[in-house]
Amino acid sequence: MAPPLESYEKDAPSIAWVEPVPPELIVDEIHDLAERNGVKPMKVGGFWLGPKGSDGIAGQPAKPDERVIYYFHGGAHVRGSAHPSSAMGAGYEGLLQHLGPNTRIFSLEYRLASAAPFAQENPFPAALLDAIAGYRYLIHTVGFNPRQVIISGDSSGGGLALNLVRYLALYKLPQLPQAGGLLLLSPTMDWGKTYADDPNSAYCRNVRSDFVETVMEVDYTPRALRGNMPEDFVRKSLWISPGSREAEWKPGAFSGLPPTFILAGEAEQTLDGMHAVRDLLLQDIGEERLTYVEMPDTAHDIILFKWFEPERTQSLVKIAEWAQKL
């Protein structure tokens, strides 16, 4: 579990607090799931990276043409941190370097889920409620134009990013207009492991070329996410496993998403789910709004590893080219 933000006193100029999402912005299926799992909105925080205000404190009002990457870190929904010194540090650095000086990053310290043998805490949709609150903070407190917001995440954070833009698209809440773009970096799209029984799948084929097997082969994340929901919720819900073979997708389920960039690695164990989501998005938003890049011979989350060259830089260049066209 990530330490509380109060423990990061030396980072105070880069920390921002996010007020809980108002109840009227929690609607429909997400409202019902929150009720079933006993999830309530709460105050969370996050870290600013990139240009600071003239007083040296981050979180200054947005300029009209300024862009922000609203970021969700990976960690299987159960660990990790948004802190700049975390594993995501090299990723932040790479994105800022390639997207230019007119870009900031706000990385949310969303709630992490847990399950036995620990206390059952923060099941779905806790992190999504935090993500909604953070988006509201960016556009209503900091003042970013929603079209200047790129919602992004790596690994499990990619799933949270997809959930947020889907929520905005489905419910069209006047206070929460759709963002300008969606950037998914090695997103984990199938926590139900529905490809594990296919010897021709990437899940089986790439087990030795990737490093995520120990995370995927235990059932801790599925148990932590589902809370009071039945076991098949993890395999069937588009909110948890949109790339599952059993996902309850219907045409139009992802309609209304902003222009989307998916970065995948050919050697990733979880590639099957990414392929599945790519194909669903092609049907729902069309190839003109979807950019899919699969880097040859690369494993999971390469922008986090500075030594993964030249593929890391090549990927960041492609991301920057896409972002400039938004």
Automatic annotation (TrEMBL):
The active site is at residue 155. It comes from the Eukaryota. Coiled coil: none annotated. Keywords: Hydrolase. GO terms for molecular function: hydrolase activity. InterPro entries: AB_hydrolase_3 (IPR013094), AB_hydrolase_fold (IPR029058), GDXG_lipolytic_enzyme (IPR050300), Lipase_GDXG_put_SER_AS (IPR033140). It holds the Pfam family Abhydrolase_3. PROSITE patterns: LIPASE_GDXG_SER (PS01174). The keyword DNA-binding does not apply. Residues 70-302 form the Alpha/beta hydrolase fold-3 domain. Belongs to the 'GDXG' lipolytic enzyme family. This is Alpha/beta hydrolase fold-3 domain-containing protein.
